[in-house]
Amino acid sequence: MTVNKPSSSPQRAVSRRRSALLAGCAATVLLTVSACGGGTAGTTDKDGFAQAPQKDGALTVWVDATRMDAAKLYQKLHPEVKLDIVSYDGNANGSNYLQTKVQLFNRTGKGWPDVVFSSQNNEVSWAVEAGFAAPLNKGLVDEATLGRFAKGANDVCTVDGTVYCLRNDLSQAVLWYNAPLLKQFGYTVPTTWEEYQQLGEKVAKEHPGYLVGDAGDSFTPEIYLWASKCGANDITGPKSVSVNTTSEACTRMAKLLDVLIKNKSMSISGVFSTDFGKNKADKVLLMPGPAWFGGAVFRDTLKTPAKQIAAAPLPQWQGDGSPSTGNVGGGTWLLSQHSTHIKAATDFLKWVTTDNAYQGEKAPGYPAYAPAAEAWLKGQNASGYFASDLSALAAASSQVWPKWGSGQFSQEAIWAATVKPGITQGKSIASMLPAWQDAIVKYAQSNGYKVSQ
Amino acid sequence: MTLSHSPSGSATRRPRGVDRQSRAGIAFVAAYVLLLIAFGILPTGYAVYFAFTDAGGTFTGFSNFVTTAQDFRFMDAVGHVAVYLLFWLVSLVVFVVSLALLLHRLASSAVSRSLRFLFYIPGALAGAASVLVWLFMLDPTVSPVSSLLGMLGFDTFGEVIAPGNLALLFTIIAFWTGAGGWIVVIYGALNNIPKDVMEAARIDGASAWQTAWHVQIPMLRKWIVYMVILAFAGGAQLFVEPQLLSLASVGVAGRDYSLNQLTYDFAFQMNNINGAAAVSVELLVVSVSAAALFVARSGFFDAD
């Protein structure tokens, strides 16, 4: 832009500009310095990590919308605790909000929440490296309490024997079904995958439009392929993973899905899609899915009426001696190393993961803490929503196949970006298994994992 | 942009007024310069510093650039952004200029005024909100134009957002949100073309088409270049559209689609702020070079 006008006094203008420039720089530098100041002086080593000087003040707790009830209940039962409850997206669907914020807080040296809930169970894979998650089994939480969590529940929280988070809920997969509808059609609940496939083929012929499952979600591999013992995600060390998606365990499940997708007895929309809610909500006959499907999908999203939905054990392959199932998520609670209210934070953490007042009575998902899970199951059976008791959940809680880990890279994101578009275009899952493997390997390597195939 | 009609004659007669004027000018510019330094130049310098150092602050030369370029998503992202830029810039230039010319030809000022308003409305929605509007538009189950989507062979959201459609979808969204403002700007520029030039064209018997092609568009050249430079810089930083789409589709489409998303992943998911800075410096270099090329070739700063 040129402005053709006679300049009055160039010298003065320049000097003024220079002083303005200097003032600006000074202001910015001051801002930067004060933002970056916030040292680590005065820490004491206790409970297995360097603790910041403890202070009074409000305990900051980050929760997602669903866990808001837990924090509010705690406040009601403990009015003496000053609680600052912050609602965020729970890091759901790979939003990485928590991780993004913690990286920024690490740069500015302040702002970390004291306790945080995440709907993801792989937070430890970065939160330990980032110096955020505090070790819990080095003094903060006693061994007896930790020991009462369901077997393997806190595996996703454990790095080299140290527990860095507590599991909120388990998400073991079971076979959900519509009991009155199944009876009306004259079918029985399949106990093997072979029977399951036959039933799917029968449904396609006799009752077209009805569904025996859904394969359109990003967590589809965690229901079917995990349960089938497909070694796509065997995290063998803190930074190493073994990937093999073309073994017999993977291909036979992929072929089963392909058959049922082709005859349309298996939907490819995804249970949370608008399409499913509008067109398929009342067409569900069977639905393999995690524990939280009962409340979150059938009761709350699809609005299935009471006394219809029941749970059975997930089918197994014929002749497989050791029953296995998959797992979809299951939230975790983390405690910040930087907390200046560690005692209050620990009290909250223990209460929210183990106390019956929340986990036993109010929690929407299957509690990871075994005594709370018992109370929860009783409550669910008494609520009268389900058509059967939910004992299948209890049995499945210890059958989650242990060789599918929680890495820093999101298996759900990889499946969604690599396999899902192909399914939509009509490609078979079996034909995409090599591409899936390729994508997992690339993502794992770019996150610094050593990959064996 | 040149303001060549400054009252140079009056300057000699009323020096004190000019003095006050220039002081006011400096004050305005100073405020801008302050903000530019605080939010433009210093962060850029910070990014350049990060790009050439590692996490510990040691100088590493170009290693951040090499490692990020070797990431398996990098070349894909470059390709995506290049295709998107091509679609977006071509559609912007062609449609904005032709719509502005059309608007200018409309004799009835009432029609012209309401059309101008209509064009501008989408621009009033903030970026993210308008993307959300489009997410509804593109989902056949809830879209008000689902029959149109059905006619094109799209029955589910998943089919609409197939990987091959993304560049076009982002172009449509960006055009819908961003073009209205430019139509109004170009329309204003058209009004600035001196009446006598237009009249001379008419007296010489030029048709509407000839007037547009030989008189109006050449005189709009600088405005078009200005629009292309800003649209290029904005388009190269594509982020909101794919990011929101990836959240809405639960990761099916739009994750790691653009370079800016990749920088976001580097910085926050892979804890590699330095790599992220390297990619953003590359984006800056590309945008500045493109702008320099356009400016040099179009004689942008030449006085008329």
From TrEMBL, chain A:
Gene3D superfamilies of this UniProt entry?
Periplasmic binding protein-like II
**Endpoints of the signal sequence:** 1-35
Is the ATP-binding keyword given for this protein? no
Q: Which UniProt keywords apply?
A: Signal
Say if the entry is tagged with keyword Magnesium: no
Q: Which domain of life is it from?
A: Bacteria
**Name of protein:** ABC transporter substrate-binding protein
TrEMBL record, chain B:
Entry annotated with the keyword Hydrolase:
no
Ranges for domain ABC transmembrane type-1 come to: 78-294
Its cellular-component GO annotations read: plasma membrane
**Where does this polypeptide localize?**
Cell membrane
Which membrane topology describes this protein? Multi-pass membrane protein
Q: Where are the transmembrane segments?
A: 24-52, 81-103, 115-137, 166-190, 223-240, 273-296
The question of whether Transport is a record keyword is answered with yes
Highest taxon, organism lineage: Bacteria
Ordered alphabetically, the record's keywords are: Cell membrane, Membrane, Transmembrane, Transmembrane helix, Transport
Q: Name one GO biological process term.
A: transmembrane transport
Similarity comment text for this entry: Belongs to the binding-protein-dependent transport system permease family.
* Name this protein carries in UniProt: Sugar ABC transporter permease
Source organism of this protein record: Streptomyces lacrimifluminis
According to the entry, what is the taxonomic lineage of the organism? Answer: Bacteria, Bacillati, Actinomycetota, Actinomycetes, Kitasatosporales
